[in-house]
Amino acid sequence: MNAGTPVWPRRVQSAAGLAVHVNANGSLRRIEHGDVVLNLFPASEVEGGPANLYLRVLPEANEPDIGLSTHEHEHQHDSELAEIAWTPLLGPRSPLIFQIDEAGLYATGEWQGLHIALSLVLAQSAPAWFWHVALENRGPVTPRSISSMRRMSRSPPTGRSG
Cys staple from 14: which of 72, 86, 116, 122, with CB 3.0 to 4.6 Å? Predict the structure, then answer.
């Protein structure tokens, strides 16, 4: 490996002592504060791990409902599930391209006519982190709404991957 090649995983640490180890595909290998590791299952380059963000398109009456999801929606009916298109925003199946610096993780990409800008920002005054997601519709369909939910289980959201 030459001196210009970045080494992964990369580590970012806040002034408050929160450290995040990030793989080249954006998956979170490890989140730690002092001697405490916060994520039970570390991610790898091959398997993105259970902690992820998902972007979902939920069509309803010919209008998609676009949701940023970190948790599976538990009240979906089977007839609705076939219509869901989704993509992980972190890990090997993400459509995003990642970069990292001292301030955090940044990524951009396109999926189903949506331009996605994602950033992981570590708080400097407390051991906390924030996901910032910006979406720009560049496709022919206008989204009806945007929602967010948490998802920490090991299975992907129900529906088809797009």
Answer: 122
